[in-house]
Description:
Layout: H1 2-21, H2 27-42, E1 49-50, E2 57-63, E3 68-76, E4 88-94, E5 100-101
Amino acid sequence: MRNEGRQRFVVLALILALVLWSPWLTTAYVERRVVQEFSSAWDGVVDGCGFDCEGCGVIRVSRLTFGYSVEIEYACGLLALDSSEFHLAGMAYVSPLGTVHGLPGP
């Protein structure tokens, strides 16, 4: 009976370690998911937000204990001048399952 408890603990610890590591999430995949989610959220919105500006897009990707934190820079509306003073910044979280949370949307 005690041996079964230890085996279950070892299996659960291995599963937890695998989820913490999340080897299926690469930096390139995380960047792509964030860009896809952001773009699809703003698709079809007149004068919406996007990455079509100088220096916009994924700025920084940081690995967390569970998943990734992603910093983005974007612009909204029609810009008379593509200057960084008109750009906005946002943060997103990508879970170990690859779902994206916290992105600014319409």
